[in-house]
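Narrative of accomplishments. A recurring question from our advisory board has been how the design workflow behaves on a single, concrete structure rather than in aggregate. To address it, we present the structure tokens for one chain from the evaluation set, followed by the sequence designed for it. No filtering or post-editing was applied between the two.
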């Protein structure tokens, strides 16, 4: 009989509805023989408290809390952390390793790991100190992240550039696992007329993603089609503006297969993040790797690290953030030059296969967990 490698609990402060990075990692470990549970936070959507997903059990802890209020969300966050810690202590027999995603689960994860003599993996999706509206608590958040990284049995980063965010900390184990999607080529989702230039953005609906600039450009070109999907703190304002434009199709929250179909049906993807947000200067978003996997050109903003990846691999165009005229010019160039679109998309596909494929990332993740399960020091 094959030896049982053990059990893992993923902790994430989203409802996993969807959360592609968590679901990919959980599924990969389940396929490798680990017994996997995922614990998420239902802040008010009143989703199912438990679900069976392919390879793992999903549990949601209901702790009501609003979105997008910065430090005013702190009481809700603390209640969630207390509830998560309670679940981890009560269910200690269900896991050997805690996989804590970001600081908000790493702190209760660290306490539970020490109390229950479990191993801890700290997966830094985003640095709390740089990504979130923590204001005067930024310094404290950075110190707590350094503490969690130093105490964890392993740290996972989504890009090598993020080592700088750890400061002087040298983790016991460090793995760089890019936010790459599995290699699937879905049938395109219909995005309007059969002909015409099609643009897509699917992701977090946040003003710092350049979405109002993109909508401004779409308003000037009614002959183009823009598909917009996702959710987030600025969803109401973005959706309201989108619905005033007949050539913009707003889809709201979609599942990941639908998201991929929407992107597969576009001629170009857009992911312009504001470089004034510190965390964006370390950006390695799944939108880039989805574009690569699908063979689609992508437009990104200067000064966000992702521009370096796009220029290195020649898979898209780079524009200044918030400059509607330059963004429009880039889109007009791609609309007028289908051969350029194909060349950029093909370059991205080659980069995905050589450096960023999910098969490569899955092998890194499973290798790390097998080392932990074997008890390596």
């Amino acid at each position: 009989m094959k030896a049982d490698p053990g059990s893992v609990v993923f902790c994430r402060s989203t409802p996993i509805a969807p959360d592609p990075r968590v679901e990919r990692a959980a599924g990969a470990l389940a396929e490798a023989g680990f017994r996997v549970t995922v614990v998420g936070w239902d802040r008010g959507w009143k989703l199912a408290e438990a679900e069976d997903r392919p390879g793992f059990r999903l549990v949601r802890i209901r702790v009501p809390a609003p979105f997008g209020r910065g430090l005013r969300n702190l009481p809700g966050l603390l209640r969630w952390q207390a509830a998560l810690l309670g679940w981890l202590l009560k269910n200690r027999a269900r896991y050997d390793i805690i996989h804590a995603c970001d600081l908000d689960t790493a702190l209760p994860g660290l306490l539970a790991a020490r109390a229950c003599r479990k191993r801890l993996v700290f997966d830094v999706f985003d640095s709390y100190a740089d990504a979130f509206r923590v204001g005067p608590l930024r310094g404290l958040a950075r110190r707590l992240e350094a503490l969690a990284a130093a105490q964890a049995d392993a740290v996972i980063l989504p890009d090598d550039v993020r080592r700088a965010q750890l400061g002087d900390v040298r983790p016991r184990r460090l793995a760089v696992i890019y936010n790459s999607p599995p290699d699937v080529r879905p049938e395109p989702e219909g995005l309007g007329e059969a002909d015409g230039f099609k643009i897509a953005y699917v992701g977090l609906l946040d003003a710092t993603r350049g979405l109002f600039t993109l909508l401004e450009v779409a308003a000037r070109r009614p002959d183009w089609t823009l598909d917009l999907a996702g959710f987030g703190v600025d969803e109401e304002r973005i959706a309201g503006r989108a619905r005033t434009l007949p050539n913009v199709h707003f889809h709201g929250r979609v599942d990941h297969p639908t998201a991929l179909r929407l992107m597969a049906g576009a001629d170009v993807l857009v992911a312009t993040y504001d470089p004034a947000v510190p965390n964006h200067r370390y950006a390695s978003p799944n939108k880039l790797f989805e574009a690569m996997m699908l063979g689609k050109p992508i437009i990104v903003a200067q000064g966000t690290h992702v521009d370096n990846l796009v220029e290195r691999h020649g898979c898209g165009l780079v524009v200044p953030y918030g400059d509607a005229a330059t963004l429009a010019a880039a889109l007009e160039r791609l609309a007028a030059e289908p051969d350029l679109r194909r060349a950029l998309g093909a370059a991205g596909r080659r980069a995905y296969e050589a450096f960023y494929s999910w098969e490569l990332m899955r092998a890194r993740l499973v290798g790390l967990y097998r080392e932990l399960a074997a008890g390596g020091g």
